[in-house]
């Protein structure tokens, strides 16, 4: 049994988190074994790699929910960021036009992945596979570019002033504005966090509205994006301390 602090997310009991982490880790191992026998066609490559990406994020989030040390949460997240997601995108590259038409590419999670990269303190070299994978897709986003610049991969990139998901991230982008004062950033982040879960639930991803379900699919409701912005700009996050969706101790860990 891994050592852990008290649960950060009490919407589920300790037995749930213990089972979830073990079960999903085993599932990822099974997928990895299946991939060893996969053929080289697009269909044979993409499906399992998409599962690896999805469950890679879920494990990182569930690890945090369960109370594991931040370093262990980062270990799960790093596997997603530098291995699972880039491998999935490389498979999509076997048929780019088909991938653009049929795969979402994690459009509603790309901001989350970049936030996790900041929270895991990826070096520019470590972040390169993730940034390259994100750049495979045609969409560009102003908030993504803020995270990418912080990760040391911003040189030579074209400026972007629009958001792929403005309803979710307009306030987050405002918190990153170069001319914003510390107070401006606090206010924008509070507004962002206030509406964050509602916007996540408006997406097609089921994981934001299912903590009452009997299925083992709940991984926690965590606004990693807000924590990453706090860490990047050194914002006083006292007004967010009582938010049920703000992962404060992860932001604290980055700043330490």
From TrEMBL:
InterPro entries linked to this entry: PA2201-like_C (IPR028983), PoNi_C (IPR015025)
Domain PoNi C-terminal: 140-249
Gene3D superfamilies: PA2201 C-terminal domain-like
Protein's UniProt name: DUF1911 domain-containing protein
Pfam families: PoNi_C
């Amino acid at each position: 049994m891994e050592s852990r602090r008290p649960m950060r997310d009490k919407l589920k009991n300790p037995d749930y988190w213990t089972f979830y982490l073990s079960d999903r880790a085993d599932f990822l191992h099974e997928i990895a074994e299946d991939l060893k026998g996969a053929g080289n066609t697009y269909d044979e490559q993409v499906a399992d790699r998409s599962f690896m990406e999805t469950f890679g994020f879920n494990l990182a989030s569930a690890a945090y929910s369960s109370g594991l040390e931040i370093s262990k949460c980062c270990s799960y997240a790093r596997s997603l960021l530098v291995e699972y997601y880039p491998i999935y995108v490389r498979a999509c590259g076997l048929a780019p036009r088909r991938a653009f038409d049929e795969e979402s590419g994690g459009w509603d999670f790309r901001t989350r992945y970049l936030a996790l990269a900041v929270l895991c303190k990826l070096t520019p070299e470590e972040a390169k596979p993730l940034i390259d994978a994100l750049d495979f897709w045609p969409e560009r986003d102003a908030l993504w570019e803020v995270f990418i610049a912080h990760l040391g991969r911003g040189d030579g990139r074209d400026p972007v002033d629009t958001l792929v998901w403005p309803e979710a991230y307009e306030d987050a982008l405002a918190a990153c504005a170069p001319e914003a004062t510390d107070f401006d950033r606090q206010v924008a982040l509070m507004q962002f966090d206030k509406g964050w879960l509602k916007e996540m639930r408006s997406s097609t991803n089921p994981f934001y509205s299912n903590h009452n379900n009997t299925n083992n699919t709940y991984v926690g409701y965590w606004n990693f994006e807000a924590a990453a912005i706090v860490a990047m700009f050194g914002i006083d996050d006292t007004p967010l301390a009582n938010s049920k969706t703000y992962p404060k101790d992860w932001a604290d860990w980055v700043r330490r």
